[in-house]
Backbone:
C-alpha cells in the first residue's frame, strides 16, 4: 500500500528528529572528521567520531597515543576546525563559526588546560595576574574574581607567586583557575596530570571536580591513563579516530563504586569489539550474530581459517 | 588593551634592539648631516678661494650715454641691489663698489706700445694709501695742438713708478685722435693688496705686460685712478669705456643645497639686467659664478651618488638587522602570544602587543639616536627626520605583521619538520620578476649613457636583492650534494651538520638578506675608496713629476746644484730646463723641457708615472698637438733641429695639454737648469733655503693638498665609516641569526647528546650547520661587491676627488675584500662554536621538555 502524503510528511519529520543526533546535549559530535594535510601526506586524525556529552558532566576521553583525542580537544576548544561532520557546543556550530565567533567562543564558552604545566601559565606573571589575563583579554575584569577562584581551588597562597615558585600540582590548579576565569560552560583538559605524580594528580582531579560541582561547568579530560576512569563519571574510549567504548561509574546500592564498560553503538548500528575480546576468540574478518530474546550473541565464524 | 608586556623577561633582547636602533638612527640621521656639512664647506671654499671677479656679480655697461655724477652711479647701484633675486640676496654683501674705466687708451706717440687707462673707483679712498703726492683733485683744461682739452689729475700705483718710469708731476697726453691730458699728482699703494676685492681692479694695482698676437714686443698697460671730478671728462663716445657695478658675493653664507636656486637666480638677474631699461645704456651681467657652481655641482653629484649608494646600503642593512632583532623578540614572546591567542586574545590584541613591545624598545632608542645626531655638525635635512621615522615604522610594522601572520589561527603547530614546503607559484614568479628587472636594469644602465638618474640608485638595490633571492633558492642544492658525500663517510657529524644546514627553514633567509648587502656594499665602498686613494697618489705624482721639484724663475747656478746634491738625504738630482720655444720660423710657441730622460726615468722608477725612453741627441717626444710634422727647427737659445721620436700625452709634473715637447739636454748649447727633480728625504724648507727665489714642491705636499679637499675627505671618510659599520652589522646579523635559531638548535643538540653526541661533536655540528650559509653568502656578497663598481663605474665620475684624474679600471682589491669576507666567516664560525660551548651545561631534560610543544 502506498503511503499517503501525511504519512510521508510524518516520516520525514521523524527522520529529521532522529538526525538531530544528541538532541540538546551540551557537546555533540556527529561523524566528525579531521584530516591533516601536509605536503604529500594525509593524516586522518578523526574518522567519523560520534560523541554526546550533557551539561554538567565530568567526562574523560581515553585513548592510546595517536588515537585522535588531542585533535578532538583542539576542535572542541575552537583552536582547530574539523574537516567535516558536526561539532556543536552549547548549540554553537563549530564548523560554521566566523573567526569573530570563534574568538568570542574561546573567550566565554570554553576554557582549557594543557598537559605541560609550563605552557598553561606565563612565567613572568604571578598566579593572580595569570588568572586575570583571560579576563583582561576579554575586556571584562571582575575585581576579586581571581582570588575567589584561587581560593576555591585551594591555591590562594600562590596568588603572588611566580610560576617558577610553584609546584607542578599548584601550577595545574592555577591553570584550572585560569581556564574558568571567564566563567565558561565547558572546561577541556589535555592530560592535565600527565606530568604529575599520583598524589598531586589527586589534588588536580579534586580541583576539576570542584569546578564541575560548584560551578556547574562541563569538564572534559583527555588522557591516555585508563585509571582516570576511577575519577570521573563517564569515560569514553577512542580508538583510531572513533569512539569505541564507554565506562560508566555508578554507586551501587551497597555504596560501592561500580564501573561498567560498554561498547559504543553508532547510529547505523556499527559496534567496535574490544581488541582483546577478538583476539581471545580468534575473531577475524567476520562473525556470526544471533538475536536472542534479551541480547545479541556474537560467535566466531564457523569456517576454518585457511591453511595458507 | 591591557596586555601585560614582559619587559623584564625580555630585557636582554630589548637592549639589543635599543642599541641597534639607536646606532642605526644616529648613522642614518648623522651621516647625511655630516656629508651635507662638508658639501657646504666645499662650496664655501670653492666660492671664497676663487677670485672675487669670478664669484661677484658685476653689472657692466659700455655707455652710449655718459654718467657724469657719482650720484647717478649710486642710484643705479641701489637699483641693481634691489633687482637681485631673493635666492641670491642673502649672499650679497652691501659693501660693493662701482668703477668706470677705459681700456686700451694709448699714450700719444708711443705707437701702441704703452697704454694708460683712466679709472675711477667709488671707494678708492678706502682702498689705497697715498704714499707720494696727493689725491687727485678737480679737472682743468689745457691746450694741445691748438685745442682745449681736459686735464685730469690722476694717481698711479707705486709699481708703475718702477715699471713705467712714471712720477708725480708728469703730464701724459692720451689718445690718438681725441686727446686728453692726465697729470700724475700722487702715487698710491693698496692698503691690502691681498684683498679679494682687487681681483676686479688688478689693472689699477699692477702694470700688465701683454704680447699682442703675432707681435714680438710687449705692451705695457696701466689704469690710473682719478677723483669723482674726473668722471665729467670721461666719455664713452671717445674711448673704450666700461662702467661696472660690483655686487660682492659672500661665499661663507652659501649652502650646497641652494646651488640650483643660485644658478637660476644668477640667470634671472642676467636676464633682468639685460631687459630692464634703467637708462639708455645697455647692461650685462659679468660673473663666473654659474661656471663655478656648475663645476661644483658636477663634483657634488658624483659625491652624492657614491654616498647615497653607501648610505642607502647602510640603511638597508641596518633595517635588516633591526628586523632580525625584532624577529628574535617576537620569537622569544612566541609562548606568550600563543597562550594569549588560545585564551581568547584577538589577533589585534596579540599583534598590538607585539608592536607595542617593539615600539617600547625602538621608539625611545630612535629618539635618542635622533637627538644624538644633532651633535653632528651640519644642516638639518629632511632625511634627518625621515630616517629615524622609517626605522621605527619598519620595526613596529614588521613586529605587527609577523605576529599577525604567525598567530592568524590560534592553534599554530607548525609541522615543517615533516616535509619541505614547496615554493608557491606566486613566490617563484615574483622572484623571477625581481631577478629579471635587476638584469634589465643593469643592462640599461650600461647600455645608455650614464648620467645622474634614479636608475643608478635602483640597479644596485635590485642586483643585491636578485643575488640574495638566487642565493636563497640555490644554496641548498650544492649542500645536498655534499650531504650525499657526507652520508657515505663514516663520521656522523658532517652528515648531520650539513643535513641540518640544507634543511634550514626559510628563516635563514633574513640573515642572507642582511649579510649579502652588507658585504656587497662594504666591498664596493672599500674598492671605491681604494681606487680614489690610488688615483690620488697617481694624480699627485702627475702633478709634481718627481718626489721633489725645485722650480726657479732664472737659471740655477751649478754651484747651487752641487750644494743640493751634497745635502743630507738627497739621493738623486736630475737637472731640467723648461722654456717657451718658437717652432720653426712661424709665430708659434710650445712649452719645452730639456732633460736627461734616462736619469729622470731612473728617478721615477717604481712610481705610478712614467716617461718613455728617448735616444739620440736631437730626438724629441712631442705632444699630440705637434704630431706628424716631421723634423722641425726650434728657436731656443740656439736653433737646433729636432726629430720627433714619439708622442707623449702628458709630461708628468709639467704639462698635460697644449703643445709641448721633451728633448735631451744636449739640444741646449750648454747644460743649464731652472728646474731640479730630486729624489730623497730632504725637507722643502731646506731646499728653499739652498735655492733662493725658487718654489719647491713635493709629491707628498701635492697628495696632502688633494686629500685636504673637503669633498674628497668626506667621500673617503664616509666610505670608511660605512664599511666599518657594515662589517659590524654583518657580525651582529650572524650573532642574531644564531640566537634566533638557538632554542631549536639546543633541542636538536640535546636530543643528539642523549644519543651520545660529545661536547666537541656538538660544537662541530653547530659550526657545520651555520657555516655553509655564511660562506655561500660571503662569496656571493664578495662577487656582487666586486661586480658593482664594474657595473656602475662609468656612472660614477670620481675624477673630482682624484685630482681631476679619471678614476678608471677598478682593479679588484681581492686582498681587502677577501679579508672582509673571510673575517666574517671566521667570526661566524667562532660565534657558533662559542654559542654551543656556552650552552653545553644546559640541563638536557629541561631543554627537551620545555621545547616540546606537541
Residues:
Amino acid at each position: 500500500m502506498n503511503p499517503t502524503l501525511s504519512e510521508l510528511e510524518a516520516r520525514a519529520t521523524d527522520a529529521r528528529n532522529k538526525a538531530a543526533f544528541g538532541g540538546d546535549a551540551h557537546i555533540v559530535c556527529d561523524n566528525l572528521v579531521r584530516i591533516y594535510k601536509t605536503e604529500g601526506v594525509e593524516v586522518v586524525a578523526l574518522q567519523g567520531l560520534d560523541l554526546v556529552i550533557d551539561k554538567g558532566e565530568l567526562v574523560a576521553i581515553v585513548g592510546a597515543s595517536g588515537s585522535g583525542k588531542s585533535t578532538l580537544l583542539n576542535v572542541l576548544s575552537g583552536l582547530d576546525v574539523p574537516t567535516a561532520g558536526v561539532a556543536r557546543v552549547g548549540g554553537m556550530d563549530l564548523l560554521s563559526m566566523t573567526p569573530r565567533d570563534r574568538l568570542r567562543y574561546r573567550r566565554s564558552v570554553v576554557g582549557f588546560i594543557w598537559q605541560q604545566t609550563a605552557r598553561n601559565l606565563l612565567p613572568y606573571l604571578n598566579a593572580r595576574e595569570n588568572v586575570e589575563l583571560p579576563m583582561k583579554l576579554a575586556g571584562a575584569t571582575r575585581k576579586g574574581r581571581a582570588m575567589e577562584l584561587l581560593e576555591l581551588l585551594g591555591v590562594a597562597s600562590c596568588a603572588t607567586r611566580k610560576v617558577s615558585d610553584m609546584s607542578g600540582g599548584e601550577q595545574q590548579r592555577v591553570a584550572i583557575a585560569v581556564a574558568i576565569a571567564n566563567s565558561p560552560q565547558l572546561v577541556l583538559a589535555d592530560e592535565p596530570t600527565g606530568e604529575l605524580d599520583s598524589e598531586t594528580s589527586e589534588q588536580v582531579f579534586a580541583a576539576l571536580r570542584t569546578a564541575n560541582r560548584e560551578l556547574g561547568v562541563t569538564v572534559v579530560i583527555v588522557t591516555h591513563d585508563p585509571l582516570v576512569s576511577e575519577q570521573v563519571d563517564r569515560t569514553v574510549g577512542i580508538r583510531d579516530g572513533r569512539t569505541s567504548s564507554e565506562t560508566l561509574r555508578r554507586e551501587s546500592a551497597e555504596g560501592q563504586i561500580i564501573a561498567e564498560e560498554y561498547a559504543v553503538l553508532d547510529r547505523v548500528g556499527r559496534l567496535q569489539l574490544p581488541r582483546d575480546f577478538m583476539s581471545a576468540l580468534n575473531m577475524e574478518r567476520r562473525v556470526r550474530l544471533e538475536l536472542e530474546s534479551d541480547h545479541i550473541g556474537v560467535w566466531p565464524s564457523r569456517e576454518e581459517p585457511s591453511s595458507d | 588593551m591591557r596586555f601585560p608586556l614582559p619587559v623584564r623577561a625580555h630585557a636582554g633582547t630589548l637592549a639589543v634592539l635599543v642599541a641597534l636602533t639607536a646606532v642605526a638612527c644616529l648613522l642614518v640621521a648623522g651621516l647625511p648631516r655630516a656629508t651635507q656639512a662638508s658639501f657646504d664647506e666645499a662650496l664655501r671654499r670653492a666660492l671664497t678661494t676663487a677670485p672675487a671677479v669670478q664669484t661677484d656679480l658685476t653689472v657692466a655697461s659700455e655707455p652710449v650715454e655718459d654718467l657724469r655724477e657719482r650720484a647717478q652711479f649710486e642710484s643705479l647701484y641701489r637699483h641693481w641691489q634691489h633687482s637681485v633675486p631673493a635666492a641670491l640676496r642673502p649672499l650679497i654683501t652691501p659693501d660693493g663698489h662701482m668703477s668706470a674705466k677705459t681700456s686700451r687708451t694709448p699714450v700719444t706717440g708711443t705707437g701702441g706700445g704703452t697704454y694708460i687707462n683712466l679709472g675711477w673707483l667709488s671707494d678708492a679712498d678706502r682702498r689705497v694709501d697715498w704714499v707720494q703726492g696727493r689725491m687727485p683733485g678737480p679737472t682743468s683744461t689745457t691746450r694741445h695742438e691748438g685745442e682745449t682739452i681736459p686735464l685730469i689729475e690722476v694717481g698711479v700705483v707705486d709699481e708703475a713708478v718702477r715699471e713705467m718710469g712714471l712720477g708725480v708731476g708728469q703730464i701724459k697726453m692720451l689718445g690718438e685722435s681725441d686727446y686728453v691730458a692726465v697729470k700724475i699728482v700722487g702715487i698710491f699703494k693698496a692698503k691690502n693688496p691681498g684683498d679679494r676685492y682687487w681681483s676686479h681692479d688688478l689693472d689699477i694695482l699692477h702694470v700688465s705686460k701683454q704680447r699682442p698676437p703675432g707681435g714680438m714686443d710687449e705692451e705695457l698697460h696701466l689704469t690710473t685712478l682719478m677723483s669723482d671730478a674726473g668722471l665729467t671728462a670721461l666719455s664713452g663716445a671717445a674711448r673704450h669705456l666700461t662702467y661696472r657695478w660690483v655686487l660682492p658675493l659672500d661665499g661663507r653664507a652659501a649652502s650646497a643645497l641652494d646651488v640650483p636656486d643660485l644658478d637660476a637666480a644668477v640667470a634671472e638677474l642676467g636676464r633682468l639686467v639685460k631687459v630692464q631699461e634703467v637708462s639708455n645704456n645697455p647692461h650685462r651681467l659679468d660673473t663666473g659664478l654659474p661656471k663655478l657652481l656648475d663645476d661644483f655641482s658636477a663634483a657634488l653629484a658624483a659625491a652624492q651618488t657614491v654616498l647615497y649608494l653607501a648610505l642607502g646600503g647602510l640603511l638597508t642593512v641596518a633595517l635588516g638587522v633591526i628586523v632580525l632583532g625584532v624577529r628574535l623578540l617576537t620569537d622569544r614572546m612566541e609562548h606568550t602570544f600563543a597562550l594569549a591567542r588560545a585564551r581568547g586574545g584577538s589577533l589585534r590584541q596579540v599583534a598590538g602587543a607585539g608592536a607595542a613591545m617593539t615600539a617600547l624598545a625602538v621608539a625611545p632608542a630612535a629618539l635618542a639616536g635622533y637627538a644624538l645626531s644633532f651633535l653632528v655638525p651640519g644642516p638639518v635635512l629632511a632625511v634627518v627626520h625621515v630616517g629615524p621615522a622609517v626605522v621605527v615604522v619598519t620595526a613596529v610594522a614588521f613586529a605587527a605583521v609577523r605576529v599577525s601572520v604567525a598567530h592568524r589561527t590560534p592553534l599554530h603547530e607548525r609541522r615543517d619538520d615533516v616535509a619541505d614546503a614547496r615554493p608557491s607559484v606566486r613566490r617563484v614568479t615574483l622572484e623571477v620578476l625581481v631577478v629579471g628587472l635587476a638584469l634589465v636594469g643593469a643592462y640599461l644602465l650600461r647600455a645608455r649613457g650614464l648620467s645622474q638618474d634614479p636608475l643608478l640608485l635602483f640597479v644596485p638595490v635590485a642586483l643585491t636583492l636578485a643575488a640574495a633571492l638566487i642565493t636563497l633558492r640555490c644554496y641548498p642544492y650544492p649542500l645536498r650534494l655534499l650531504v650525499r658525500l657526507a652520508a657515505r663517510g663514516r663520521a656522523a657529524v658532517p652528515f648531520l651538520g650539513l643535513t641540518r644546514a640544507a634543511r634550514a627553514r626559510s628563516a635563514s633567509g633574513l640573515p642572507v638578506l642582511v649579510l649579502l648587502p652588507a658585504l656587497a656594499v662594504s666591498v664596493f665602498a672599500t674598492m671605491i675608496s681604494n681606487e680614489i686613494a690610488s688615483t690620488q697618489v697617481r694624480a699627485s705624482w702627475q702633478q709634481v713629476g718627481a718626489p721633489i721639484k725645485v722650480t726657479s724663475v732664472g737659471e740655477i747656478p751649478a754651484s747651487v746644484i752641487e750644494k743640493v746634491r751634497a745635502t743630507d738625504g738627497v739621493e738623486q738630482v736630475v737637472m731640467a730646463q723648461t722654456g717657451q720655444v718658437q717652432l720653426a720660423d712661424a709665430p708659434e710657441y710650445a712649452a719645452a723641457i730639456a732633460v736627461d730622460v734616462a736619469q729622470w726615468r731612473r728617478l721615477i722608477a717604481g712610481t705610478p708615472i712614467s716617461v718613455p725612453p728617448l735616444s739620440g741627441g736631437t730626438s724629441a717626444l712631442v705632444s699630440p698637438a705637434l704630431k706628424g710634422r716631421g723634423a722641425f727647427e726650434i728657436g731656443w737659445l740656439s736653433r737646433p733641429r729636432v726629430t720627433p721620436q714619439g708622442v707623449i700625452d702628458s709630461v708628468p709634473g709639467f704639462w698635460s695639454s697644449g703643445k709641448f715637447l721633451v728633448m735631451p739636454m744636449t739640444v741646449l748649447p750648454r747644460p743649464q737648469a731652472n728646474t731640479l727633480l730630486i729624489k730623497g728625504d730632504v725637507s722643502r724648507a731646506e731646499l728653499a733655503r739652498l735655492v733662493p727665489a725658487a718654489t719647491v714642491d713635493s709629491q707628498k705636499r701635492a697628495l696632502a693638498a688633494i686629500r685636504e679637499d673637503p669633498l674628497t675627505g668626506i667621500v673617503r671618510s664616509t666610505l670608511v665609516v660605512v664599511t666599518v659599520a657594515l662589517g659590524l652589522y654583518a657580525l651582529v646579523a650572524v650573532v642574531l641569526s644564531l640566537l634566533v635559531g638557538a632554542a631549536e638548535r639546543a633541542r636538536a643538540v640535546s636530543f643528539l647528546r642523549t644519543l651520545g653526541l660529545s661536547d666537541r661533536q656538538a660544537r662541530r655540528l653547530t659550526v657545520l650547520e651555520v657555516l655553509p650559509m655564511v660562506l655561500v653568502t660571503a662569496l656571493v656578497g664578495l662577487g656582487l661587491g666586486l661586480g658593482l663598481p664594474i657595473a656602475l663605474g662609468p656612472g660614477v665620475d670620481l675624477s673630482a676627488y682624484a685630482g681631476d684624474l679619471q678614476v678608471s679600471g677598478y682593479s679588484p682589491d681581492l686582498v681587502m675584500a677577501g679579508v672582509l669576507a673571510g673575517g666574517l666567516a671566521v667570526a661566524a664560525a667562532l660565534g657558533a662554536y662559542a654559542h654551543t660551548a656556552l650552552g653545553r651545561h644546559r640541563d638536557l631534560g629541561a631543554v627537551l621538555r620545555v621545547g616540546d610543544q606537541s
In short: Chain A touches chain B at residues 36, 38-41, 74, 77-80, 99, 102-103, 106-108, 112, 116, 118-125, 129, 133-134, 136-138, 141, 178, 182 (CB under 8 Å). Residues 274-308 of chain A form one domain. The radius of gyration of chain A is 22 Å.
